[in-house]
Specification:
The chain has 333 residues and is an alpha+beta fold. It has helices spanning 24-35, 49-60, 73-86, 105-110, 116-128, 162-174, 181-198, 201-204, 262-270, and strands at 2-3, 13-18, 41-46, 66-71, 94-99, 133-146, 152-155, 157-161, 207-213, 222-224, 226-230, 250-255, 284-289, 291-296, 298-302, 305-309, 316-329. Helix content is 30%, strand content 32%.
């Protein structure tokens, strides 16, 4: 890990917490107790999207080095999208993600990872001690416009098909058990794969979709059993279900209904190293692009938020919405 900052002065941190996010409902008071003792930390607790944006404006009036976001994937997407859209900071701060939500895929992959209290303690130690080792990653965000006249949102992950069925199952069954983070994702993934293996119609309903990459003609008629779009190289649980070539920051994987040797190919698919049976002819599509559009009727999951789209409203347009430097504090050697 490199050390940052080089000066002895601790970084000035603006911390935004969403009190309504899953893990924060249980642990926010302890997170506040761990981090608010630092004079360099300015902690703003919010309860709505409007308050999140007000908190960004408030912190932008102060000279902060790090913007820490304590919430779920939707909270992180809302805050970072607001920063990209309105550019409130004179100098863009580095970003730390704390896993204060229910699923926390972004925090697991480019943020602090682990449990919320462990992540808060790690940040506390990083601010308190010298040296301050950390890993940094430059990560683009997706900009997603829903239809010709629809709203524009930002995020890191978008999914359809079985992803929607998995989301519904997680909300209905998994989160009710109090499971969060990796446990929630692991159980949901297992149940989804079991449903696909058994041909359970709750998980195998395909979505007709027209996919267009950059300036190329639309891909031949597609149905998506699973549709994944992300600017992340890896997803939660170490999954890397993208193997397309090209320099674009937007990664697409589409699996058609009844793909050949699906379960046998799954381990290599999730490592991004598909075997010889994984081909477009056998129902597997993966590409990188600079721009992507989806024309479809149905639901899309953007960082945990469900959006319903219609063909008659025009395509969903996805592009690189801008980049941030994400910071992950490490332990001193």
């Amino acid at each position: 890990c490199a050390d940052w900052p080089r000066s002895g002065r601790p970084p000035r941190v603006g911390l935004i917490s969403n009190a309504n996010s899953g893990c924060n409902r249980l642990h926010l008071a302890r997170v506040d107790g761990i981090l608010s003792r630092h004079a360099a930390v300015r902690h703003v607790i919010t309860g709505s999207t409007g308050e999140l944006h007000q908190a960004v404006a408030e912190l932008a009036r102060e000279p902060i080095d790090v913007l820490a976001i304590n919430g779920g994937d939707g909270t992180a997407a809302s805050v970072l999208g607001h920063v990209l859209t309105h550019a409130p900071f004179a100098t863009q701060p580095r970003i730390v993600l704390l896993p204060g939500g229910t699923v926390n895929m972004a925090a697991a992959t480019i943020g602090s990872g682990g449990s919320l209290l462990r992540a808060a303690t790690r940040l506390d130690r990083w601010l308190s001690e010298l040296p301050r080792p950390c890993r940094t990653l430059r990560q683009p965000m997706l900009r997603v416009q829903f239809g010709d006249h629809g709203a524009t949102h930002h995020g890191l992950f978008l999914g359809a098909g079985a992803v929607i069925r998995a989301t519904e199952y997680a909300h209905r069954r998994v989160h009710a058990l109090g499971l969060r983070g990796g446990e929630s994702l692991g159980l949901t993934l297992t149940r989804t794969l079991w449903g696909l293996r058994r041909g359970d119609p709750r998980f195998t309903h395909a979505v007709p979709v027209q996919v267009t990459l950059d300036d190329a003609p639309p891909l031949p008629g597609q149905e998506a059993l699973i549709l994944l779009v992300s600017s992340l190289r890896r997803l939660a649980l170490g999954m890397c279900p993208f193997w397309g070539s090209g320099s674009g920051a937007i990664r697409l994987t589409l699996i058609r209904p009844r793909p050949e040797r699906f379960l046998r190919s799954l381990p290599s698919l999730l490592r991004g190293r598909p075997g010889r049976h994984v081909s477009e002819r056998n129902g597997y599509v993966s590409h990188n692009a600079h721009r992507l559009s989806l024309l479809m009727d149905g639901a899309l999951n953007l960082d945990g938020e469900i959006h319903h789209v219609r063909r008659e409203d025009g395509p969903v347009r996805i592009a690189n919405g801008g980049e941030f430097t994400f910071l992950r504090p490490c332990r001193a050697r």
